[in-house]
């Protein structure tokens, strides 16, 4: 089993980005929304580069106890500006001052990487912005490689 190494002061940089904002999305339909994003990219024959990046901004709990999440989906694309009618676009996205960890293994064990990040923040008395960026390097049913970037709140 590989050791989960935590690195400090990493920066996530994305260029020529197409993105989709998913506000108050129910966990049960998140995968369907991610697939819908991918299908639209395919339908428009978008030439992408780099992996899919997902930003989780946290969990929302309504007065009736319903849990939803805020997610953004990001992908870098050649000629990204021509797709501004179908997607939101950003020329450059920089996320500095992140604590970083790479997870490689069975998808059901990804929780350990998140727990290690939580523990690292606690032990080092750091405060998170509440966001986490997941860079999906490889994803199959039995094996996944994900880079996790959690920004530190700078006071």
Please provide a written account of the structure.
The structure is a single chain. With 155 residues, the protein is α+β, with helices and mostly antiparallel strands. The chain has one domain: Multidrug-efflux Transporter 1 Regulator Bmrr, Chain A, CATH 3.20.80.10. 18% of the residues lie in helices and 51% in strands. The radius of gyration is 16 Å and the shape is globular.
What's the CATH architecture name? Alpha-Beta Barrel
- String of helices and strands: EHEEEHEE
Question: Looking across the biggest beta sheet, what order are the strands in?
Answer: 1-3-2-5-6-4
Low-confidence segments, given as residue ranges, are none
| Percentage of residues in strands | over 45%
CATH superfamily: Regulatory factor, effector binding domain
Category by helix and strand content:
alpha+beta
Number of helices: 2
Gyration radius, in Å: 16 Å
CATH class: Alpha Beta
What is the straight-line distance between the termini? 37 Å
The CATH topology name reads: Multidrug-efflux Transporter 1 Regulator Bmrr, Chain A
Broad shape: globular
The tally of domains stands at 1
Describe the secondary structure blueprint for this structure.
Layout: E1 6-25, H1 30-43, E2 48-61, E3 67-77, E4 88-105, H2 110-123, E5 132-139, E6 144-151
Antiparallel strand pairs: 1-3, 1-4, 2-3, 2-5, 4-6, 5-6
List keywords for this structure.
single chain; 155 residues; alpha+beta; Multidrug-efflux Transporter 1 Regulator Bmrr, Chain A; six-stranded antiparallel beta barrel; 2 helices; 6 strands
């Amino acid at each position: 089993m590989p050791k989960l190494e935590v690195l400090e002061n990493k920066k996530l940089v994305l260029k020529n980005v197409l993105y989709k904002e998913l506000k108050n999305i129910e966990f049960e339909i998140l995968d369907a929304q991610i697939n819908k994003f991918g299908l639209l990219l395919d339908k428009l024959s978008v030439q992408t580069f780099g992996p899919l990046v997902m930003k989780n901004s946290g969990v929302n709990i309504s007065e009736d106890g319903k849990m939803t999440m805020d997610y953004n989906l990001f992908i870098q694309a050649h000629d990204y500006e021509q797709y501004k009618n179908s997607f939101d676009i950003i020329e450059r996205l920089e996320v500095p001052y992140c604590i970083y960890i790479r997870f490689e293994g069975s998808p059901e064990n990804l929780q350990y990487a998140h727990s290690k990040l939580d523990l690292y923040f606690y032990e080092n008395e750091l405060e998170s912005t509440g966001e986490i960026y997941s860079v999906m390097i490889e994803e199959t049913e039995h094996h996944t490689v994900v880079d996790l970037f959690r920004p530190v709140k700078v006071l």
